[in-house]
């Protein structure tokens, strides 16, 4: 095949109906990149002999070394089917969980995907994850069952066994699809139900729904994978073959004389053929009839493999001639059977043909984008499409039309930014010289040579044209040097550009509507941009040039730089890109951080944020080896942040630069990038920083030796009292029930706070709804400030009540009575998994917006002081007393809030002040008087003069005192309860063969892992183990498993949840039994204490550690000395 010229690609880009934007998705190592190689080789970009070996899309060195893909990258391919020509924009994605964010960036800009499944391993955890991602993005999948050769060569299945095995895999993957579909239908139905409850008599008459559209009536047959639907292909990418049943249906309809349509329906399934009668019948197991798929397809492939592996030359020749193939002499003689197989099969059943035909037939073109997908892309957060302004809604038509006229708005989505070497950019590449340039160069070289000769002879330069053959012969020797100099002088411009272009970024994007042109001016809409705000600020039909627009938050105006055709490792320059294509855009690095929406109209909303499956959890602190290189590191980290969709960079209050990554492999890649690409300096990396959460729990009923508490005698009372004393200083009242009462330093306000552990389900609900909580807080604060109250959309209101209902459902019992209504704030950062409850009677306030919150006069009066209390709570939940980590699952109840003194002072002071108004300031009262003056401003006046210096006394401003007191009260309230640490947990999926199972368990248990489930994969000797493992114990886990099992098992780790560590970090023996069991020092291993002390040590906090008090000298038994 010929290499397609750029012109051809440009021409194909214009025919939107024949474009397919697809990505290849699968579990790690199921053969995505190998399959991509096969497809690329069909375009002649790489040789077919190297397909599968080269892994062309893995362009990074570490990808090649590790053998895994780490980024998604695109390539444009040309495919001809009959008379029709297609442009296929293919994106290869990584399968490793650490890089799942790269999958998200790929699915967003595609219309369809190829799900690859390893025929031996079947459906794996990442297969489920990618299927879900495809589903969430509303893109259509087709299935490739790869590595069929392993069934023959490794598992040594008979064709019949292989058929059952394949059937099984299809069932599994269809079960997954079914589950996704059902949950979606049910969700939609639930949504409709709530909507119709909200407005039972829909005035507009639009919201009449078909109630009968239940699950039973929804046709979902097109969603499932089945060879007879044409959306499944069986392949062996490594051997270069693949087929769908259509291929065989065509062959056998000619051969046997049964209609192709009939064969298409029966080639897959339990049908057999009665050759004599030329009839297809249902398989009757008892008669031992083979299904058609086995008899007509698999057996042929099996016999070919059999012949080649047994080196049965005669049989091979027979097969080759019967198939009408021609095998090159070199392949036929080759001793490696793999070469022979791939030579025969790639001609007989070319894989690219099978896969690309399916893609073109079954996957949609950009024109087929569904209304559902468009609406979903346009509605960020809890917005609904109907609530968008009409100008914005009008853009839906542009999306659906995908038009290229000049009037069509240009809409582009940038899903990630990737760094390219400046040298790799087409404009910086040395281009082939034209004939004229070559002639010119020769001329100059000749001249120089002549000058040199002349100088050597001390003569004037000869006329070069007059010089005959002599210089000509010498020229050959000189030419290379001349050329080198020429290259330098011919490309003077790119050099300085390269200097400042070190991290040249190209945006990975897709045009959804209109034509993207180089140099076009366009709006860049950040994820928080709101078209509503723009339309409010700027009058409709604004005519000013966009440069003069008033500043609108999260919007910028920029020029599209160079446009590129993405060709795997290469980029090709383009002038313009028509709608529906995937492209690279230069010149956006100053405008786009990670992703953005570009549109020629400001009424466009930003696309919904990409949906990332993995949470960044592994963090390390980095610093330069040489402190003077700090600026390089800072710059490098910034570039890294831009180049990776999911890495996070933080600068902690300690000044440490912290890198947060999705896992160990991701961390390694980020560090490599930082060292070699972005910072280009040596860096030192800390041990991984493991996050913890702090919480409290109910007092235990039994002690550490499982004896009921209360029944035994306390012996080690000394420990207990000593500890209590150190925790709670004097002057703080603590009642037996854990209520802590604290007074501000100026003695004017007294707060009583109690801490209670929240039920686990409630913590979970809070975690899941953090976005909603954030919007509740925003709403309430704008309500309190008297801003527009009408803006609460019905749907958000609905969600809020639903959330509240859920909390009420789980917070039942006497001690939680009315608590939900009294919730005042969530923390930390106003959206975390901790609650502040206000039980004080004088002042009632809650987070719930709407009529439930009493916006009385009283409330406004107390609001400023209330804000200080909430701030104190926020600070307390941000860092707990154990090791300054955030809290989780704690409810603080503000039982009493005594401000009577404050008000008293206020009232008396009012009178005082009226009298003392006449007295001049110069008269210094005694210190005490002054102190009272400072903080006893009349209340109303105080609010009026907010922020004035007169509010402060020697303890600082009153609001500050309140914040500090609230924070301290919360901390003490925590400390009087049994405190616990919470550890971040990974779920860990391991596939291993039976014989290494024991070793896997050994490693798991050594690292505190807990096995949840173990099941055998049907038809194989593989076991799937599901376990949970603390993140703290996970470093080096994957390597250890791989080493211990000689590479036969490899785990997938994904952050899953927080789990309480049962042991008490402050535990000391207190009862006689414990004392007997653990000894006085109790220095046996305490996991929680170990973690806590490690964190404290890292943060430079005081660590109370046991020192060996009475060490005995060790003696050898022989007593020689
Ligand atoms: N036997 C056999 N091996 C295959 C086949 N296809 C791929 N492989 C091998 O499987 C391994 C993984 O292939 P890749 O193509 O790198 O897999 P991938 O899905 O791209 O992996 P990630 O990108 O890391 O997720 C390589 O060693 C391939 O040689 C196949 O059809 N048969
Ligand atoms: Mg790959």
Please provide a written account of the structure.
The protein has 1121 residues and is of the alpha+beta class. The protein is built from 35 helices and 36 strands. The longest helix has 40 residues. It is globular and about 110 Å long. The termini are far apart. Guanosine-5'-triphosphate binds next to α2 and α6.
- Secondary-structure-derived class: alpha+beta
Taking the alpha carbons of the first and last residues, their distance comes to 88 Å
Low-confidence stretches: 200-213, 460-501, 715-722, 918-950
Q: Averaging pLDDT over every residue, what do you get?
A: 79
Helix content bin: 25-40%
Shape: globular
Largest sheet: 8 strands, antiparallel
C-alpha Rg (nearest Å): 36 Å
Enumerate the strands of the largest sheet in spatial order, edge to edge or round the barrel.
Answer: 14-13-19-10-11-18-15-16
Q: Which hetero ligands occur in this complex?
A: guanosine-5'-triphosphate, magnesium ion
Instruction: Kindly report the oligomeric state of this protein.
Output: single chain
Report the strand count: 36
Structure annotation, total helices: 35
């Amino acid at each position: 095949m010929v290499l397609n010229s750029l012109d051809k690609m440009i021409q194909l880009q214009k025919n939107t109906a024949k474009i397919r934007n697809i990505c290849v998705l699968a579990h790690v190592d199921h053969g995505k990149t190998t399959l991509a190689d096969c497809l690329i080789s069909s375009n002649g970009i790489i040789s077919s002999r190297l397909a599968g070996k080269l892994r062309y899309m893995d362009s990074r060195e570490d990808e090649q070394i590790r053998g895994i893909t780490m980024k998604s990258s695109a390539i444009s391919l040309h495919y001809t089917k009959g008379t029709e020509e297609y442009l296929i924009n293919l994106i290869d994605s990584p399968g490793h969980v650490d890089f799942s964010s790269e999958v998200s960036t790929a699915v967003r800009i595609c219309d369809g995907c190829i799900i690859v499944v390893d025929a031996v391993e079947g459906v794996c955890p990442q297969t489920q994850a990618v299927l879900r991602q495809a589903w969430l993005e509303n893109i259509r999948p087709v299935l490739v069952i790869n590595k069929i050769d392993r069934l023959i060569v490794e598992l040594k299945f008979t064709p019949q066994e292989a058929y059952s095995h394949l059937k099984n895999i299809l069932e599994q993957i269809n079960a997954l699809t079914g589950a996704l579909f059902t949950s979606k239908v049910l969700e939609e139905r639930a949504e409709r139900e709530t909507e119709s409850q909200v407005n039972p008599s829909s005035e507009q008459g639009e919201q009449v729904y078909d109630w009968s559209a239940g699950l039973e009536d929804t046709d979902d047959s097109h969603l499932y994978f089945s060879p007879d639907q044409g959306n499944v292909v069986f392949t062996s990418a490594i051997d270069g073959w693949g087929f769908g049943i259509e291929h065989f249906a065509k062959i056998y309809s000619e051969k046997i004389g049964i209609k192709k349509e009939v064969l298409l329906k029966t080639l897959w399934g339990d049908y057999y053929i009665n050759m004599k009668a030329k009839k297809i019948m249902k398989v009757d197991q008892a008669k031992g009839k083979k299904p058609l798929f086995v008899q007509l397809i698999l057996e042929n492939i099996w016999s070919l493999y059999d012949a080649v592996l047994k080196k049965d030359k005669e049989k091979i020749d027979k097969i080759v001639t019967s198939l009408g193939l021609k095998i090159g002499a070199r392949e036929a003689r080759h001793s490696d059977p793999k070469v022979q197989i791939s030579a025969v099969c790639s001609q007989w059943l070319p894989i690219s043909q099978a896969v690309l035909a399916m893609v073109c037939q079954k996957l949609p073109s950009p024109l087929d984008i569904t209304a559902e997908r468009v609406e979903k892309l346009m509605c960020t957060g809890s917005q609904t499409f109907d609530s968008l302004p009409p100008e914005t809604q009008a853009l839906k038509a542009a999306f659906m039309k995908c038009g290229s006229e000049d009037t069509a708005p240009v809409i582009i989505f940038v899903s990630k930014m990737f760094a390219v070497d400046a040298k790799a950019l087409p404009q910086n590449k040395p281009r082939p010289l034209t004939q004229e340039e070559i002639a010119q160069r020769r001329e100059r070289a000749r001249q120089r040579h002549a000058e040199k000769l002349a100088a050597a002879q001390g003569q004037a330069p000869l006329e070069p044209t007059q010089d005959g053959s002599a210089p000509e012969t010498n020229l050959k020797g000189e030419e290379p040097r001349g050329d080198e100099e020429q290259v330098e002088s011919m490309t003077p411009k790119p050099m300085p550009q390269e200097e400042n272009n070190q991290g040249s970024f190209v945006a990975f994007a897709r045009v959804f509507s209109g034509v993207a042109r180089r140099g076009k001016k366009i709006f860049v809409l950040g994820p928080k941009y709101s078209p509503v705000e723009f339309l409010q600020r700027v009058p409709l039909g604004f005519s000013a040039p966009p440069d003069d627009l008033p500043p609108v938050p999260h919007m910028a105006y920029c020029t599209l730089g160079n446009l590129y055709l993405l060709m795997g490792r290469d980029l090709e320059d383009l002038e313009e890109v028509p709608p529906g294509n995937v492209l690279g855009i230069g010149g956006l690095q100053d405008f786009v951080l990670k992703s953005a929406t570009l549109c020629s109209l400001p009424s466009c909303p930003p696309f919904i944020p990409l949906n990332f499956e993995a949470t960044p959890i592994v963090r390390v602190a980095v610093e330069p080896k040489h402190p003077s290189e700090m600026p390089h590191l800072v710059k490098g980290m910034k570039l890294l942040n831009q180049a990776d969709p999911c890495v996070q960079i933080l600068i902690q209050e300690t000044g440490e630069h912290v890198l947060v990554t999705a896992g160990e492999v991701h961390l390694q890649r980020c560090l490599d990038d930082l060292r070699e690409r972005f910072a280009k300096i040596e860096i030192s990396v800390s041990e991984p920083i493991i996050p913890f959460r702090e919480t409290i729990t109910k007092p235990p009923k039994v002690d550490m030796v499982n004896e009921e508490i209360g029944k035994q005698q306390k012996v080690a009372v000394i420990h207990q009292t000593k500890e209590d004393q150190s925790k709670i200083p004097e002057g703080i009242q603590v009642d037996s029930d854990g209520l802590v009462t604290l007074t501000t330093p100026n003695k004017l306000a007294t707060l009583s706070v109690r801490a209670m552990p929240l039920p686990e389900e409630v913590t979970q609900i809070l975690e899941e709804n953090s976005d909603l909580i954030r919007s509740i807080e925003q709403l309430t604060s704008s309500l309190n400030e008297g801003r527009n109250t009408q803006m609460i959309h019905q749907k958000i209101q609905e969600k809020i009540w639903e959330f509240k209902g859920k909390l009420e459902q789980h917070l039942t019992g006497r001690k939680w009575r009315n608590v939900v209504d009294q919730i005042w704030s969530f923390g930390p950062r106003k959206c975390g998994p901790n609650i502040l409850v206000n039980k004080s009677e004088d002042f009632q306030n809650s987070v719930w917006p709407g009529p439930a919150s009493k916006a009385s006069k009283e409330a406004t009066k107390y609001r400023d002081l209330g804000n200080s209390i909430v701030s104190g709570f926020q600070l307390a939940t941000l860092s707990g007393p154990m090791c300054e980590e955030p809290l989780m699952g704690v409810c603080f109840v503000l039982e009493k809030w005594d401000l009577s003194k404050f008000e008293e002072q206020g009232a008396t002071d009012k009178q005082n002040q009226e009298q003392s108004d006449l007295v001049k300031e110069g008269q210094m009262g005694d210190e005490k008087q002054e102190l009272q003056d400072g903080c006893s401003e009349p209340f109303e006046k105080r609010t009026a003069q907010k922020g004035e210096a007169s509010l402060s006394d020697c303890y600082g401003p009153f609001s500050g005192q309140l914040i500090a007191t609230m924070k301290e009260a919360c901390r003490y309230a925590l400390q009087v309860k049994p405190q616990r640490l919470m550890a971040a947990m990974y779920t860990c999926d391991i596939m291993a063969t039976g014989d290494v199972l024991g070793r896997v368990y050994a490693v798991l248990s050594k690292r505190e892992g807990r096995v949840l489930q173990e099941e055998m994969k049907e038809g194989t000797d593989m076991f799937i183990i599901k376990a949970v493992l603390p993140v703290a114990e996970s470093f080096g886990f994957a390597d250890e498993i791989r080493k211990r099992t000689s590479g036969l098992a490899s785990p997938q780790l994904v952050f899953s949840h927080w789990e309480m560590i049962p042991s008490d970090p402050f535990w000391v023996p207190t009862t006689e039994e414990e004392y007997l069991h653990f000894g006085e020092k109790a220095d046996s291993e305490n996991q929680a204490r170990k973690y806590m002390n490690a964190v404290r040590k890292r943060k430079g906090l005081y660590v109370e550690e046991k020192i060996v008090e009475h060490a005995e000298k060790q003696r050898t038994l022989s007593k020689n000395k």
